[in-house]
Amino acid sequence: MREEVLTDELWARLEPLIPVCPRRFRYPGRRRADDRAALEGILYAMRTGWNRLPTALFGASGSTCWRRLTEWHEAGVWQQLHERLLAELRVAGLLDLSAALVDSTHLRALKRGAHTGPSPVDRRKLGSKHHLITDAGGVPLAVTLTGGHRNDVTQLIPLIDAIPPIRGVVGKPRRRPRRIYADRGYDHDKYRRLVRARGITPVIARRGVGHGSGLGTVRWPVERTFAWLKGFRRLRIRTERRADVHQAMLSLACSIICLRKLILN
Description:
single chain, alpha/beta, 6-stranded mixed beta sheet, 9 helices
């Protein structure tokens, strides 16, 4: 997909969500950088880095784009954008909530900060985890950030609760899939009971059972979605000390994945 087409489609959905920032009449100061230029700079920086962003190309510096990313995150813009795109996918019949897929992935954290910890898979080096829940086809419904030492099963319920109300059709917004598929890392009877209490059927592989459960034929879309997320260079290794900045980029990346599916289908 051509990048300018994606940016145009993304901007058409993002612009109505951006809060208006009125300019002061007295002592207005320097004129605020254009929001569209800031969006293009943010998308570029997610693939390269803030320091490599060519200001002359976009009309907004790396620091301006960084501030705009955090401002919009604090205003809830990225979450609203994600929810809007999920609603569009539901209207188009491209969202399959008959099942949800859950998984996590480690990434190294080069700087200390919130939601970091000793990673058990990287010689206890400082790391973080992405916890992801998708629909049956791999559309990201919610993604969270924790320290690298957090057990996957402890994030199962927070992930389910993080699924936003998905509108788009007549009736009550949808928030719960019918089934949850997960690997052995989520094997715990306590959490199975908690999942069932929410009206969801857990389908979780058990420890001590030989491979060949068949869940891999169902769970592979969530692995593909992680690969799509890692397509953004800034999400492969955590270089941001602030957790909210990294979470903002995660939310934006999920929206881009949803938009690509909407455009290509």
